[in-house]
Amino acid sequence: EVQLVESGGGLVQPGGSLRLSCAASGFTFSSYAMSWVRQAPGKGLEWVAYINIGGGSYADSVKGRFTISRDNAKNTVYLQMNMLTPADTAVYYCWVGYWGQGTQVTVSS
What we know:
By secondary structure, this protein is mainly beta. It has strands at residues 3-7, 10-12, 18-25, 34-39, 45-52, 55-58, 66-71, 76-81, 90-95, 103-107.
């Protein structure tokens, strides 16, 4: 059974940073590309970042501020988020064809 467990969200002030983690199980983690997707209040899903063996790709809205990485030994994918703005407020999900429960990120002063 595939399981994805996101963590690391919270309340942060504009300009602050957070690091999200997604612990994966139930599949051969190192063989799959992983993505982060977010959903802001009242809006649809937005792809944020993607990582495969060749490296990461980013949505224009987060490029230069967010960094996706993975630790195949820990079956975990990370999203380092810097210079956060209120527009980054959303529930963040990792995705590999399956969804986790998400982790809430709120950027507010």
